[in-house]
């Protein structure tokens, strides 16, 4: 753990140092152009040592923020057509746990404890649960079997599951009591009111012998009058989801952009979506910042991790 933590600190520190030095050098150049004279070597040395120290401190703080147990973020969502019996339905989303040497069993245990304390009606996990093979992460994933919700725990794969053997991991999650949706759906509720939970695969699936994302297949046979919640690891395919009548799409993958300001760069690579709630033509899309983080670049600055608790609300009559 501490080797991985130190490596993350060192790598993110180096990345920040590169950015800070670039800004510093631009500042020095502008100063020379304005003053028409160079700064002393001693002054420049002080600035460079200062920038190096700042990079170390900021990266250390960022890694600490990235590896902490996430807080709960509460979001109310109005769902057109939601039955009165499901008004107040509470659904918790976990995403991008990236269970690994940097996010090991004790961290997972605390995430599960914090999730269970919410007493949700349903828990959904929108992909990238793991980083590692079944053998390497066997102990670290064990606390996931303790997740509890009235209507169960539903998970879909992200791109990282496919990197480490998706079929084996989905079987492992089923052993832990989860329902894995591979271009499938489940119906929660009863005859007084129902909610469709659909889940599709990640687009990298075909590179590893898996099925491509297929929303039409996932919704085949779903009740026509029930609102649809789509689990899609990436905040993508919005036009297709709108055409299919999806009411709420839950995604992750972006990690919220990790660093405030850099999040806009990440948004451009994800169809303009990076963090929080978006509305498009009757569809609501929520992009989680993620509960964990890929350990290759473990830093968060101004973009906190989250356990997201949704409370679904019926739209009042007349609206």
Verbal overview:
With 319 residues, the chain is of the alpha/beta class. Helices cover 34% and strands 21% of the residues. It is built from 9 helices and 12 strands. The chain has helices spanning 2-35, 41-67, 105-116, 134-137, 159-163, 166-175, 215-219, 238-243, 263-268; strands spanning 71-79, 89-94, 122-126, 153-156, 178-180, 184-190, 193-199, 228-231, 248-251, 276-280, 283-287, 306-314. A 6-stranded mixed sheet has the order 1-12-2-3-4-5. Strands 6-7-8-9-11-10 form a 6-stranded mixed sheet. Helix 1 runs antiparallel to helix 2 (41-67). The longest helix has 34 residues, at 2-35. The radius of gyration is 22 Å and the shape is elongated.
Question: Features of this protein?
Answer:
single chain, 319 residues, alpha/beta, 6-stranded mixed β-sheet, 9 helices, 34% helix, 21% strand
Shape estimate: elongated
SS elements, strand count:
12
Taken in chain order, the helices and strands follow as: HHEEHEHEHHEEEHEHEHEEE
Please count the helical segments: 9
What structural category do the secondary elements indicate?
alpha/beta
C-alpha termini separation: 52 Å
The major β-sheet equals: 6 strands, mixed
Q: Which stretches are poorly predicted, pLDDT < 50 over at least 5 residues? A: none
Percent in helix: 25-40%
Q: What percentage of the residues does DSSP assign to strands (E)? A: 15-25%
Overall pLDDT: 94
User: How are strands sequenced across the largest beta sheet?
Assistant: 1-12-2-3-4-5
Radius of gyration: 22 Å
């Amino acid at each position: 753990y501490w080797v991985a933590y130190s490596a993350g600190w060192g790598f993110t520190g180096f990345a920040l140092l590169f950015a800070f030095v670039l800004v510093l050098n631009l500042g020095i150049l502008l100063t020379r152009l304005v003053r028409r004279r160079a700064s002393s070597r001693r002054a420049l040395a002080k600035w460079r040592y200062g920038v190096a120290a700042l990079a170390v401190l900021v990266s250390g703080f960022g890694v600490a923020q990235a590896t902490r147990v996430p807080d709960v973020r509460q979001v109310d969502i109005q769902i057109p057509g939601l039955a009165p019996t499901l008004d107040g339905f509470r659904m918790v989303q976990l995403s991008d746990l990236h269970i690994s040497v940097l996010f090991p069993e004790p961290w997972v245990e605390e995430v599960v404890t914090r999730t269970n304390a919410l007493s949700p009606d349903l828990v959904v996990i929108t992909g990238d649960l793991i980083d590692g093979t079944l053998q390497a992460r066997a102990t670290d994933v064990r606390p996931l079997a303790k997740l509890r919700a009235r209507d169960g725990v539903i998970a879909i794969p992200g791109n990282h599951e496919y990197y480490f053997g998706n079929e084996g991991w989905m079987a492992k999650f089923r052993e832990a009591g989860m329902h894995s949706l591979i271009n499938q759906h489940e119906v929660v509720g009863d005859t007084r009111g129902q909610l469709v939970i659909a889940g599709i695969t990640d687009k990298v699936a075909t590179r590893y012998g898996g099925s491509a994302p297929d929303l039409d297949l996932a919704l085949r046979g779903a009740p026509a009058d029930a609102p649809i919640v789509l689990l899609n690891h990436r905040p993508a395919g919005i036009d297709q989801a709108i055409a299919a009548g999806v009411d709420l799409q839950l995604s992750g993958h972006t990690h919220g952009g990790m660093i405030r300001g850099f999040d806009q760069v990440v948004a451009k690579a994800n169809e303009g979506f990076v963090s929080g709630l978006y509305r498009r033509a009757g569809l609501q899309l929520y992009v989680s910042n993620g509960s964990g983080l890929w350990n290759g670049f473990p830093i968060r600055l101004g973009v906190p991790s989250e356990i997201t608790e949704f409370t679904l609300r019926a739209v009042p009559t007349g609206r």
